[in-house]
Amino acid sequence: MVTMIKWVFWSTIWLLVIAVFHYTLPQVDIVRVTDTYEKRIDPGENALFWSQADVGSDGTMANRDVFFIQTRRAKGDVMVYRNEDTGWGWPPYFKFDTSNLQAEAADAKSTADAAQYYAIKHYGWRNEFFTIFPNAISLRPVDGPDASKGIPFLNIFIITLFAAIVWAIYVRWRRFRMSRIDPTLEAIEDDMAERSGAVKRWLGTWKKKA
To answer: Can you name the CATH fold of 26-150?
Structure first.
């Protein structure tokens, strides 16, 4: 039972870690921009998945206008991105150029007959049920739908650094446990066993007297 609880606990922790990395690390899609628009948004239960108001604006507003970029990805499916500043908040992309990016996206629009493809860097998820959109970070032209997305050096560096930190903590914790905690637990178990034996011997003497 204890083993099952530990397994469920650590599985949950690692699933949360993977989800955080998958949401916050940058990803790249090859897309054709079909349209751009601006829409008034009233964040509700999904407020966690919306960024703050543009830097310099009133961040306490209950609702605000948000830029969107409509695209069709190289495989043919539709993807809509929001375009919001991240400012000094999380995740730390330090994005302040929302209006400039929207202008670039508007200029990048093309039709299926005269398609122009772009690599759009973004983070986040798309969920239609909860009305969640990934946030666009940058846009650059590419040769075509089969263009390379590039090697995600930043993602590799961050994940490697995280793994190194986790491994270092695990090694130090294991050494601490073996040198301090395990001997203490063994001493406690030995003491309890000795006390239990003494009680049994005392009860045995009473049984003989009876």
So the answer is: OB fold (Dihydrolipoamide Acetyltransferase, E2P) (2.40.50)
